[in-house]
Recover the amino acids of this structure.
């Protein structure tokens, strides 16, 4: 089995590249290829020099793919700990890859002016593909699609290069002028005229005397789902929740439906209809009797499990309007885990949090929490503390026993971009946040301070849509726009497993009550169930 290591870097202050799409298209092409079982893809995002070294040591790749910015003689552009641009010198890059000459067969540098690095690297590596000038984003992606389609079909590196070049010529009738250059173009008026397709073609550099490449003796583990996927939704799946009483999982979708699935049998139990808009979030009462769903128009429906009489319909226990504004979106719907505090919360586009009685749906209080949309909420185990995350990068913790509308603490600029998801480990007293900046961060639940020894968990190449904490509080699961689900040790920050198999962005992840199963779902309309070794320990 060959390993393809994809490294992406898009530092602050540089032009924004469509790296998520590039990685998605590479994954999708290899996933559908006839030789897909012969390849394993590993992705590293926001790559720093230390990440480059470690990933080469850890993954032992045969193909290394870099997507990002290049500056010619100035080097490939990686990132610092704070996300700033960090060029790596050409000689230093060559010295590093010289250590892996017997292992790496090909390096693809999908960055502007990377022919300079290609010339240097071919001292040690058999094949290196570089770009001889500023290459538009669309051309870089087209080349990747053609190249990896051919690799997955069993073609040689040289043939795959030809396929990539052909993809540029045939797929780009009107090539974009957005360049993979270090300094962004200030305005369309200052942009150079579009480059003709024949000038976009990358260059292939070949080592004069080819190395003999030996695959690693070990076979890297590529965890796959041990269950058949649950299929039935006709649009993106937005949220998941396990029932604590039985082996069922609840799902909601942009197709305006809520579905209850029998995990063990792999079949649909109930199809719940009635929402007039896409259903963005779901929640489950602690004992599993009441199931909540909320569409983006603010309508919350409470489904009573005892009232579900047939497969296609369900009776609501109550319906509430979570916001009085007709165009306000509701983004999140957590339920208190404590049966002694039967409440749920909603977070909306206008920055308000509302607290509701779980049994009756009666409104209890509202908090003007943020000056921008509330995107994520999470309850502590006793239901007293509620964490909120916003579009403006801020996290706040609220004491619901305190009638005063003041947060217990505020974490300003918690992420470089939106705070998309929150989860709490009461056992470890850790608040976990996932962001659009592709990182997961750990915070001290009591103080809001940075958790040590590991504060930032990096590895996703797409935004982190969802984080979940295992029932015993020891592990974190994360779902990302890079098509993967990752499992982390909450104490050490170590990456335990990467689950691959989705063919779209993964938007939700949830642990079963016993922690042995993990469910994930997203844009490919499938719910996948995972049972990895770390989950059984």
């Amino acid at each position: 089995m060959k390993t393809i290591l994809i490294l992406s870097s898009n530092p602050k202050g540089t032009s924004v590249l469509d790296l998520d799409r590039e990685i998605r298209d590479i994954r999708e092409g290899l996933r559908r290829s006839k030789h897909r079982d012969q390849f394993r893809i590993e992705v590293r995002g926001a790559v720093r020099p230390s990440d480059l070294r470690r990933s080469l040591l850890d993954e032992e790749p045969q193909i290394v793919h870099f997507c990002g910015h290049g500056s010619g003689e100035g080097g490939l552009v990686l990132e610092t700990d704070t996300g700033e641009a960090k060029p790596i010198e050409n000689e230093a890059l060559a010295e590093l890859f010289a250590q892996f000459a017997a292992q790496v067969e090909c390096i693809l540098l999908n960055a502007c002016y990377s022919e300079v690095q290609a010339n240097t690297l071919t001292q040690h590596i058999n094949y290196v593909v570089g770009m001889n000038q500023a290459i538009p984003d669309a051309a870089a992606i087209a080349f990747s699609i053609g190249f990896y389609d051919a690799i997955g079909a069993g073609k040689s590196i040289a043939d795959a290069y030809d396929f990539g070049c052909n993809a540029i010529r045939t797929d780009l009738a009107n090539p974009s002028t957005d360049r993979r250059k270090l300094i962004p173009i200030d305005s369309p008026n200052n942009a150079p005229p579009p480059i003709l397709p024949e000038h976009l073609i990358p260059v292939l550099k070949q080592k004069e005397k080819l190395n003999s490449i030996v695959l690693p003796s070990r076979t890297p583990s590529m965890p796959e789902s041990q269950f058949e996927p649950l299929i039935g939704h006709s649009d993106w799946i937005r949220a998941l929740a396990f029932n604590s009483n039985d082996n069922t999982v609840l799902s909601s979708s942009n197709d305006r439906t809520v579905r209850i699935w029998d995990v063990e049998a792999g079949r649909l139990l109930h199809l719940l209809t009635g929402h007039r808009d896409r259903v963005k979030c779901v929640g489950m009462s602690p004992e599993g009797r009441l199931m909540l769903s909320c569409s983006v128009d603010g309508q919350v429906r409470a489904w009573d499990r005892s009232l579900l009489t047939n497969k296609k319909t369900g009776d609501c226990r109550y319906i509430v309007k979570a916001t009085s504004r007709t165009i306000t979106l509701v983004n999140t719907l957590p339920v208190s885990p404590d049966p002694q505090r039967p409440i749920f919360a909603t977070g909306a586009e206008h920055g308000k949090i509302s607290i509701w009685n779980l049994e009756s749906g009666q409104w209890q209080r509202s908090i003007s929490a943020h000056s921008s949309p509330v995107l994520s909420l999470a309850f502590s185990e006793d239901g007293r503390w509620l964490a909120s995350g916003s579009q403006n990068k801020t996290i706040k913790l609220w004491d619901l026993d305190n009638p005063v509308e003041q947060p217990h603490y505020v974490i300003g600029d918690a992420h470089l971009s939106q705070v998309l998801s929150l989860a709490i480990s009461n056992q470890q007293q850790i608040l976990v946040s996932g962001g659009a900046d592709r990182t997961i961060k750990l915070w001290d639940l009591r103080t809001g301070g940075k958790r040590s020894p590991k504060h930032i968990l990096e590895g996703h190449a797409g935004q982190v849509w969802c984080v979940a904490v295992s029932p015993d509080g020891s592990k974190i699961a994360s779902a990302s726009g890079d098509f993967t689900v990752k499992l982390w040790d909450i104490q050490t920050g170590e990456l335990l497993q990467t689950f691959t198999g989705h063919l779209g962005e993964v938007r939700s992840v949830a642990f079963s009550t016993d922690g042995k199963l993990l469910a994930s779902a997203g844009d490919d309309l499938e719910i996948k169930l995972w049972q990895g070794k770390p989950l059984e320990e």
